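Recall the central idea of this unit: under ordinary conditions, the amino acid sequence of a chain determines the structure it adopts. In this exercise we apply that idea directly, starting from the sequence alone.
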Amino acid sequence: MHPTRPTEPTPPNPAFLNRMDAIVDEQIGAAAPEFAVESGYPEREAVWAGVEKRVSIARADLEHIMRDVHANPEEAFKEFHAQQVIAEVLETHGFEVMRGAHGVDTALRAQWQSDDFDPAVHPTVAVMSEYDALPGIGHACGHNVIAASGVGGFLGAVGSGSGRIVFLGTPAEEGHTGKEYMIRVGMLEGVDCAVMIHPFSYDLVSHAWTGRRSLTATFSGVAAHASMQPYMGRNALDAATLAYQAFGLLRQQMPPSDRLHAIIADGGARASIIPEEATLNIYVRSLYTDTLMDLSKRIDDILTGAALMTGTGVEVDWDNHPMSLPVRNNETLAARWGATQQARGRRVLPGGILPDSQAASTDFGNVSQLVPGIHPLLKIAPEGTALHTVAFADAAVTPAALDGVVDSAVGLGQVIADVLNDPQLLADARAEFDAAGGAVSVEALLAEAEDTTEQA
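Accordingly, the structure predicted from this sequence is:
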């Protein structure tokens, strides 16, 4: 008697996830961080109060951005409505706005500088907003919150000290690398540090974000009748299958925080024809730039090996969109962020509370590898609510989300104000950045990898 065929998938066992949640809850219960401002300037209290006042004045505009962008989700490189909404708010507040900034049609740039600004003496701080959505589920990553928070941080910091503040609307983060395109057209020229936030289900001063590369591998074979003359074929699907299986074996030797995922996007037309073409779409992720490049080389070797084993050819198209680098969190600036949110009554957690294996990717990594930067997480949803879900999209337009917009706008503005007024803060942030290896660009990494390949 044949066993009953299942018609539904078996549900995943949540035991591991539940255990991880329990560990996180235990760590949260034990955490009692104090993000004290150890250095500063005599006027800091008044300066912070000024930031709060300016954000309060702009609160209705920030809510408008948050709600309007959420109600009109647009995918990467199509965010013209969001661009207009944000630009109109900035223009209402008296700022000249550049649309299509730094080579990206849906990007934005506005800036303010003090009357005494001297680039040789005073710092330039960039504050960034994202506003693209996900297909099908809209703002399930909360970019509408990021959009409003960045605008609020900019408006709150204006007039708070000597220096320059640049607001940058950076489109196309989801599945793309909008910031890298903008970097290559001068987005960070003259910028000393950069700040932005990301909504989440916890308040964290910093968290791990992996670097990500994407590629397409297309195997080409020889078609043949699968029954009459199979020996006259070269099976492209066999090559794709061998590569896919090799990825699974490679995972045994990968660091636990690395990730590798692929799909066979095309594997032939009919079972009676040996496929002459098959295509793999692949994502490669790692926590560090050097491990990301090492894993990339392993993938390249597997694809070459699969082609050799099957007598097929293979074309590998790396980085159809430029790679996202891992985020390098600047803990000096992150601690100052923690102080701002603590002052807002939030229970802000230090980095390391969530395991590094629970990490996604963001193109802010490319920014953070070129200048000191922060990308803290902002609680707007119940603990454990996952990004890229309908539940998170719903959370991104709640009263809690608006509270988060206001708190984070104040926090970003106060961090910017401290950088403008406290030279030691920026000096310490820069020293930390330099000690971690200094500036690393995508183009330099690729050139180094090419040199290594040629030498081998």
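The domain at 211-323 is CATH 3.30.70.360 (Alpha-Beta Plaits).
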